[in-house]
Amino acid sequence: MRSLRVRLFATLIAATGALWLIAAAWIYVGARQEVEHVLDTRLQEAARMVASLVASGDMPAKPKAGAPATLPALGGYERQLSCQIWSFDDRLVARSSGAPDQKLTDGGSGFSERVVNGEPWRVFAVEDEAKGIRVLVGDRLGLREQLVADLIKGLLWPAALILPLLGLLIWISVGRGLKPLDRIARELGRRDAEDMRPVDPGTAPSEIRPLTVALNDLFHKVERARRHERDVTAFAAHELRTPLAGLKTQAQIAAAAKEPAIRDRALKQILSAVDRTSRLVSQLLALARLDAEASRAAPETITLRAAIQDALELSRPAGSARVELTADARVATLRAPREPLLLMLRNLLENALEHTPPQGVVTCRIGSGGAALELVDEGPGAPEEELHRLTQRFFRGSAKVATGEGAGLGLAIAAAAAERCGARLVFENRTDRPGLLARIVFDPGQIVMEPAAAA
Amino acid sequence: MRVLVVEDDPLLLDGLRVGLGLAGATCDVVSSCGDAEAALATSTFDAVVLDRMLPDGSGLDVLKRLRAGGDLTPILLLTALDETSDRIDGLDAGADDYLGKPFDLEELAARIRAIARRGAGRASATLAWRDVTLDPATMTAARGGAPLPLSRREFAVLSALMERRGAIASRAQIEDRLYGWQEEIESNAVEVHVHHLRAKLGREAIETVRGLGYRMGDGA
């Protein structure tokens, strides 16, 4: 049952029906006991009354010759009570009209049940020793059943009438309750892909409100992701068009210049610009790949030493600054997907080496109690207010801006790659001396200290 | 023609300086909003080439501030943002022209010449004095229809004088046209160029106004 309406309808009808049935069964059992009790009491009372009438002489105590006497009708229940007076010597003294001729019971005083003329009877007997008679009062059990059945019928008939009516009401009200959903669905159906306006919860009932809130939340997120993408695209366009413009200008100079010196200079500029631009393109591609990779690659176990070495081999040739590993870093093993790990280390190392003066040292160490890898350079560090922006795409620190170098993508790539490694990248300034500290915080267990690996 | 180029990409900046130089302009180059405003506050330029996205802000803001301050220097916006709406924003902010990257160097030079001569109140692409005509686009001069050979610097001095016919151009103003900041000014260069020009055009062509500068001769 996919339809909420059908499901609600069926559940409500089934529950209501079952409730009625249980109530009917309950009442049936209860009523039956009650009826039995009331009718038994009536039998007793009637028997005692007849007995007392006989005792007082209002009734014949001796059987007359011929037919037995006919007793006046007993009880109000339309002569359904039958009464017999028998002498101890088993002669029928008297009987009520409609009472069978056959003896209703053979037992002594008290209640008993017996089949007479094929019908079950319940009989109460009273014996009068003094008069030598036995008064038997009985009624048909079938009659009792009918009483109870009448009661139950009276209960079930209205139910049979009300239940469809109830069903109709439930059907209509559930339909009305679901209307706001229909309205929201229609509104969303009419939208085009660009429309990220929040859904108006309108008069939606509180049960549907979480849905609209969640939808609007989602819209907001999608919109933000899109805006981010647009920003990045606009930046990328700017960052690519500018070097292209430079290339074209230099090429036109080379073509137009009559002096060989100017032409040669322009050609050299073109060569270096092509290098810079192809680096920019590969950076943009690396970012796009990182963005596109939906899931994390399978982690591998790599010693930090090997990872740093591999990353350095991939890096741009640096100056005379070098990378040193502390003792704990030398024995550390990382558990992370290889590609993004190397990409992250490479970009961080390139950045650190670039800022470290000649003969300086970039230190690689394990920090934060074994949970983080730290790369520390001897460069000028970054202004505090720029630290958190270092990983923004196309953000160039104020020092970089002055030289016009770099596109501001290296650390953005490092941050995105760190995320793919399951790590987080944070920048701080060194406290002991000028310099930048890149801290890569891994999940517990991703960094393992393994003395054996040092061998 | 003296042009200020504001651009943060070093390669493009170099290309503009050299390229516009080949087209006959003297370029001063800066790469931030702050430097651009400082340059415009202290020197006079015939035109400005302004990049829109600069490291310390938007070229558009520089433009708005200049126009708000009453600066009338012709400005050409140069930018990678070249959606129609971006062009409209730029022109409405007070730019005289707008060119998207990448562009053609010759087109840029032509547009700069166009906004520069409009800024100087001229519509004609050529300069004329008596029977002498100068064509800044081709950097050629003619006298009575016959080609008049001039060196690059002579051409610059003559066009500086012919652009403000009748007005006096001081020696410093002429030097400004000849040299950017980076170039070292030779002490008597202007006198030497004027001397050469007089030799080619006749003594009365350029008058010396003692203590003030030079102007094109208006005597019959």
CATH homologous superfamily placement of the largest domain in chain A? Histidine kinase-like ATPase, C-terminal domain
Oligomer: heterodimer
Radius of gyration of chain A over all CA atoms, rounded? 51 Å
Number of helices of chain B: 8
The biggest chain-chain interface is: A-B, 32 and 28 residues
Poorly predicted segments of chain B: none
CATH superfamily of the largest domain in chain B: Response regulator
Please report the distance between the alpha carbons of the first and last residues of chain B.
Answer: 28 Å
User: What's the SSE pattern of chain B?
Assistant: EHEHEEEHEHEHEEEEHHHEE
Helix/strand/pairing class of chain A, anyone?
A: alpha+beta
Question: Which CATH architecture of the largest domain in chain A?
Answer: 2-Layer Sandwich
Domain HAMP (chain A): 175-227
EC number (chain A): 2.7.13.3
Keywords (chain A): ATP-binding, Kinase, Membrane, Nucleotide-binding, Phosphoprotein, Transferase, Transmembrane, Transmembrane helix, Two-component regulatory system
Main location (chain A): membrane
